Amino acid sequence: MSTPPPPRHLGFIGLGIMGQPMATNLMSAGHRLTVWNRTPSKANALVERGATLADSPADVAAAQPEVIFLNVTNTPDVEAILFGDQGLAAKASPGLIVVDHSTINPVETQRFAQRLQDDHQITFLDAPVSGGDIGAQNGTLSIMVGGDESVFNQVRPLLEVLGKNVTYAGPSGMGQACKACSQLAVSGALLGVVEALALAKKMGLDSSTMIDVVSSGAGGSWQLANLGPKITAGDHAPGFFIDYLRKDLAIAADTAQQRDLPLALLELAERLFAEASQDGAGQLGTQAIARLYEKHGGFTFAKSQSAKS
Amino acid sequence: MSTPPPPRHLGFIGLGIMGQPMATNLMSAGHRLTVWNRTPSKANALVERGATLADSPADVAAAQPEVIFLNVTNTPDVEAILFGDQGLAAKASPGLIVVDHSTINPVETQRFAQRLQDDHQITFLDAPVSGGDIGAQNGTLSIMVGGDESVFNQVRPLLEVLGKNVTYAGPSGMGQACKACSQLAVSGALLGVVEALALAKKMGLDSSTMIDVVSSGAGGSWQLANLGPKITAGDHAPGFFIDYLRKDLAIAADTAQQRDLPLALLELAERLFAEASQDGAGQLGTQAIARLYEKHGGFTFAKSQSAKS
């Protein structure tokens, strides 16, 4: 951890469930904020604390903050905020740094970064996060950052206000690539846990015993230790929504396809979570995929393939 | 850990890569052994240390040890050792305890236990292990035990000579069920790691960075932490053979099928590891599944299905 950074003027665009607490933490650390959100009312709490509400992303840039943070939902959102009619590039001064905390496509990220650098002398860092709204509130997010390393080092003290594990992942796009890889590891481990628990139940094996034994060995994972007990208890409350995981897996799938890399587990995970979403579980936690296995009495390739059509 | 058990007369059947060091550890703890192995020469080292070599499983039983341990390869092996012409049931005295460290089918295990109890007054505990030959040598295996709990408590001090984590998993078959569940969790996590590393490589993301970042979050697993670096280094040396995992997955699949439970991830894992084995990787470590992804430039459902036929 570095010494606290001197107060700066910062921009923050996207004040949703993640962005709002992140912006709040930056203000609590003493920084001055100019903010924008598609639904302006979500800025109220920040404005009451002294933030300036801008009329557009372009107006955030026109206020000349040193760094603008973004946290929105998907790739087209980021593109519009950067390059739209009222996008920030329209009124940004050369030398601006943009830090994108959204989870979006790594290849598109690289294009955005190149275009911002070439046409506007703006440095773009991709900095997706994990750790959920709780991590955003507590400033304990994991942040994986792609882009110019010297600029990363420059903004690192600000990122350390937002997160606990702040890692430089490599050139532009590598933060997003890292996030996509993480969701692949998450999905594989989770599906393994779900099928292990389904088999345990069918066999009459006590789930807690199985979780304890398997956790202590080569089958151990964060997913097993944290979501295994929730599945056993029928607790489907979201840590992370199934629909958010689906969005992230779609990014991983698009990226893999752009690189001509078929991935069978990823395909399977997409199909299963799509079916769970169609079944009404999209706003439940990822562990609710177990509910689908129970409902259908398991899953086969054939079933998951028919589910896609 | 209990106080050291008093010396006993024990039987040990199956002196392979696992059984031999396990039997040795029991002798080192002061117990007297009567042993049998299909290939008698594998008993030489134990006989030199004072073990008695029997002519058959029946002869092991005839020597009247208090407990007979088994560690062989598959379900028919166990069945023959128990119930064959020269099987131990033929000459066992009522009250014998048989502890089966083999990894075999949980449902068959329950049938064996019932038959031994009903026809021979023999108590059968299923006690599959994990931790590999190193764990067997060092007495640090994980042992998950199904069967009569009071008999488990009786033999627990002996099991603690063999392993570090000795857990009672429930009634007969639950040790084997636990092992099957473990291999499902292992397979899901491993396939997630393999696909994450394949995507990282295609994207130009540094593997070690990805492993570090993902390990610290919800994608973390034993497989990622331990096999991720080996995959990155191209180190395919076996901790656990692909062909052994295939055998265990076949047991899980048979068990699931016996309980009418289709499991899509398990199906996928079986197909991928079968293809790896056909590709000559059966005697490599499970992490060598990554080699197959590299060779074929990834994997699709379609490819893995054609591989099955």
List keywords for this structure.
homodimer; 309 residues; alpha/beta; Rossmann fold; N-(1-d-carboxylethyl)-l-norvaline Dehydrogenase, domain 2; 2 domains; 6-stranded parallel sheet; 3-stranded mixed sheet; 9 strands; elongated; disordered C terminus
Q: How would you summarize what this structure contains?
A:
Chain A is of the alpha/beta class and 309 residues long. Chain A is built from 14 helices and nine strands.
Structure description:
The structure is a homodimer of 309-residue chains. Chain A has helices at residues 19-28, 44-48, 57-62, 75-83, 106-120, 132-138, 149-162, 174-203, 207-215, 222-233, 242-258, 264-281, 289-296, 301-308; strands at 9-13, 32-36, 52-53, 67-70, 97-100, 123-126, 129-130, 141-146, 163-170. Chain A has 309 residues and is of the alpha/beta class. Chain A folds into two domains: 9-171, Rossmann fold (3-Layer(aba) Sandwich), CATH 3.40.50; 178-297, N-(1-d-carboxylethyl)-l-norvaline Dehydrogenase, domain 2 (Orthogonal Bundle). In chain A, strands 3-2-1-4-5-6 form a six-stranded parallel beta sheet. In chain A, helix 4 (75-83) links the parallel strand 4 (67-70) and strand 5 (97-100). In chain A, helix 11 (242-258) runs antiparallel to helix 12 (264-281). Chain A starts with 8 loop residues before the first strand and ends with a helix. At the A-B interface, strand 9, helix 8, helix 9, helix 10 and helix 11 of A face strand 9, helix 8, helix 9, helix 10 and helix 11 of B.
